[in-house]
Write a structure and sequence with these properties.
alpha/beta; 7 helices; elongated; 5-stranded mixed sheet; 5 strands
Amino acid sequence: MSKLIGYARVSTKAQAADRQVDDLLAAGVRKDDLYIDRGISGARASRPAFDRALDALHEGDTLVVTTLDRLGRSTANMLALAEQLKDRGTNLRVLNLGGGDVDTGTPMGGMLFTITAALAQMELEIKRERINDSVAKRRAAGHDLGGRRPAFTDSQVANARRLIASGQPATHVARDLGMSRATLYRRIADLEAQEWVKTRHMENQPKGTPARQENKT
């Protein structure tokens, strides 16, 4: 008798798979036939529960997932998986694919799976292209793209302080340095504190200390 083998996946251990589990059980999957990967990205080649789910499949069985992204693979890999399951005499069923329940065990389901998987990959490529385009525009405009902040020397901060003292707007000086005005003022305050400590240290040095003389033979 053919069985439904359910597979669920959450990318972080903090996420709950309850919704996926409920949907799989409602679709007819038995609890004993549920396999769940927790805290594992779909991009990883090794997914223990997924591998066990595939091993549990026998001829006539169907692998059931809630959505296509639970498989977490590229279109080429997803289509190859569907073909691999077909060659083994098993099927793939996606409960929510393009707004409907798609089973590759049927001619219509197989066609819909191929088309929808290709569309999903195309949408991903469009999003990636938009992100790359946005980053390029922001970089060309000189906007902050995040990442590690550059380090500023005391000399640069001291020079910025002189510019502000000469009448230049602090906002403009900070912008030219690539930092916020608040950060610039904080760096200036830190520099002045260091200078004050250094001055006090020098003032407390004993005066009239004789210079060291070299021993002459």
